């Protein structure tokens, strides 16, 4: 039987690239997104490439009840989760002292709580099996604050702290935990920016890095993956 990868927000950008990488490498995949049409298109595209299984569920990961419903969807498959990528995120630019009221709450709920609740729901089986790998898609904004990053940086610093905590907690159980901290990656969030595409990293490079870290032996964990454009941050 193929191993199972759970990847949130898998229809675009880094999420989609990682879904494709693991699926084409022999994994079945469970993924979610808010847009059901995009999910069905993704499933159709992948199913045309191989005989693996793709499980999809429309989900708004900024809402706790939806996160827990997605977790139950995964659990009801009655299959061990070999890899979990908490990839859901939103970016709203703005300075802390100027951004719209509610910006912090929205980004904390989406960028942090989605990972917190889903990980808590799925980690028990990993602990029991003493096997599994948890990734979080953070950002270099979670290690270096920058102007106009505001609450986005706050949420990503918090996500890195969460991942570090889980890493320490899972050491006795053989569950690997990795923070993925990419810089500017060419995804839909950068559309319309007056910069050449070559200035950005490729989403497939992030996916390759995640897969490479997961492919190491169980005795080794890459705790943090920091990736930046060759010419530096944007």
From TrEMBL:
It holds the Pfam family adh_short. Keywords: Oxidoreductase. InterPro entries: NAD(P)-bd_dom_sf, Sc_DH/Rdtase_CS, SDR_fam. GO terms for cellular component: membrane. One of its GO terms (molecular function) is oxidoreductase activity. PROSITE patterns: ADH_SHORT. The keyword Iron-sulfur does not apply. CDD domains: SDR_c. The keyword Oxidoreductase applies. Belongs to the short-chain dehydrogenases/reductases (SDR) family. This is Short-chain dehydrogenase. It comes from Roseivirga pacifica.
């Amino acid at each position: 039987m193929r191993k199972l990868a759970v990847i949130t927000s898998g229809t675009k950008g880094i999420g989609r690239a990682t879904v494709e990488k693991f699926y084409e490498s022999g994994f079945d995949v469970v993924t979610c997104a808010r847009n059901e049409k995009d999910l069905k298109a993704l499933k159709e595209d992948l199913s045309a490439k191989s005989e693996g299984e793709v499980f999809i569920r429309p989900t708004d990961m900024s809402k706790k009840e939806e996160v827990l419903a997605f977790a139950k969807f995964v659990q009801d498959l009655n299959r061990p989760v070999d890899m979990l990528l908490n990839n859901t995120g939103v970016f709203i630019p703005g300075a802390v002292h100027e951004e719209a009221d509610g910006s912090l709450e929205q980004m904390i709920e989406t960028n942090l709580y989605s990972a917190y609740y889903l990980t808590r729901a799925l980690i028990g089986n990993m602990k029991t099996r003493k096997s599994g790998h948890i990734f979080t898609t953070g950002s270099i904004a979670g290690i270096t604050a920058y102007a106009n990053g505001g609450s986005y940086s706050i949420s990503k610093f918090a996500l890195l702290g969460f991942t570090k905590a889980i890493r320490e907690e899972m050491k006795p159980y053989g569950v690997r935990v990795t923070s993925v901290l990419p810089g500017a990656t060419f995804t839909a969030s950068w559309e319309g920016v007056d910069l050449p595409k070559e200035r950005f990293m490729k989403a497939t490079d992030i996916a390759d890095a995640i897969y490479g870290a997961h492919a190491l032996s169980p005795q080794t964990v890459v705790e943090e993956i920091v990736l930046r454009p060759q010419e530096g941050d944007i």
